[in-house]
Amino acid sequence: MSITTTNPCVILESARGYETLHLKDKLLSDSREIFLTEEVNAASCDSLITQLMYLSRAEPEKEITFYINSPGGSVTDGLAVYDVIRLIDAPVKTVCMGTCASMGAILFLAGDKREMMEHGRIMVHDPAFGGNHDIGGKKPHQIQSELNDLNRCRESLAKIISERTGKSLEEVYQVTANDTYFSAPEAIAFGLATNMIRKGGN
Question: Is 183 labeled as catalytic in the residue annotation?
Fold first, then answer.
């Protein structure tokens, strides 16, 4: 048996010869575990939606565990995953390992059970224009339209944080005005997480 590291898989020798078993596929089928360990974008979210829908339809009463370690990314793509998690029949538990930042934090909030590893961090902030955004050459009404869209996005994300934590919108806007990091105990106190994972029990 050997294990590759770039695309985690196990190469097994059997009577039929060598077989390649992708570890994420094994965890998906055997343990109902899925992972986001990259940016939130169209490709990663398409994969997540497919996995979530498959697992929910296969066994709608069984819990799905969603592990997240992500710097965030596309709000539109991330909200598509958030909506699917909230709509499917299967319950979803989210687990923060490493850092759940920006849209990664919003996806973490989609779970009814929201667990953090001991050294996990959550970062929330207001949305911003992407790094490739350029207002050069645009007319004032075009700039204002884009700003209005950004403010609507800010309101939508703040409402999600408010609903999932029980905090008022005013409290949410205070912490999202800048990049605000929460350790596991801080996230639990604020209502972002429900508990912390420790060896031997919570």
Answer: no
- Catalytic entry in 22, 47, 125, 162: 125
Q: Which of 102, 133, 145, 162 is catalytic?
A: 102
pLDDT tens for 158-201 read 999 999 999 999 999 999 999 999 999 999 999 999 999 988 76
Instruction: Spell out the residues 6+ positions from residue 11 whose beta carbon is closer than 8 angstroms to its own.
Output: 1, 2, 3, 4, 18, 19, 20, 21
Q: Is 102 a catalytic residue?
A: yes
Residue 54, CA atoms < 13 Å, CB-side half-sphere: 12
- Distance from C-alpha of 53 to C-alpha of 50, rounded to nearest angstrom: 5
Coil, strand, or helix at residue 116? strand
Which pair of structure tokens corresponds to residue 162?
A: 């408010």
10 strand-pairing partners: 3, 21
Does the pLDDT value for residue 115 go beyond 70?
A: yes
pTM of the shown model:
0.86
